[in-house]
Amino acid sequence: MANSNERVEPRRPPTPPPELLAGVGSGDYFEIGERALALLEEHVGLRDTDRILDVGCGLGRLAWPLGDRLAGSGSYDGFDVARPYVNWCSGSLGLDPARFRFHHADVRTRLYNPQGKIEPADFRFPWPDRSFDLAIATSLFTHLLPDAAPRYLREIARTLDRGGRLFASFFLLDERARKALAGGTALQPLTSAVPDGLVADPDVPENAVGYDADWLLREIAGAGLEVRASHAGYWKGQPGLEYQDLVVARRR
Prior knowledge:
Layout: H1 18-21, H2 29-44, E1 51-55, H3 63-69, E2 75-80, H4 83-92, E3 100-104, E4 132-137, H5 149-159, E5 160-170, E6 172-173, H6 175-183, E7 192-194, E8 197-199, E9 209-212, H7 213-222, E10 225-231, E11 245-251
Parallel strand pairs: 1-2, 1-4, 2-3, 4-5, 6-9
Antiparallel strand pairs: 5-11, 7-8, 8-9, 10-11
Helix pairs in contact: 2-3
């Protein structure tokens, strides 16, 4: 009989192929998912029964640990603009398809889906109002230009139930960030101006996008969301909770 005090190691997911992993950033696929789950537990009070929307689900790094975390009434819907990511998640993760669903959104982006038919600023999420308790958008807004961000925020708010939570990451251009960028100490260079923000590459602007912090706070409030916490990221060249800035908000 196993010792009841022994720590049970979590199941490890299948590893996506290198050609797909190259598009979602560096780092251990499994460890990043476990870290993201821990952040949700700590900062948004993850519940077994949460109906979760993962906006820009990528290769399902977070879906995998949620497979063991959510109870029978909990559910997960993730969507991404990159069809190969969605196809891999649906075909390879082996999660319960009745509760874990992956969807392709044919939204145009020069980085991941240049032939997409839907402009980001026109995209309507394919779910009714109040469908979810928790929306997750990590490394989503950092690849979304400011002209489309208000639409995504409104759609997140629309599909969240009353009191629903948002856990999102950004490159926030506050005073600390602008000083780091001016002094060359920022770990993420953002050098080209766009309305309400900065980008790293004007030829492929979605590669990395930062928003003016005051502008973003106004847009979050205008969408019907209330910021409950904000944590600076270490991309600004100073200690931080995670690389990107984290924001926790709640639907009013």
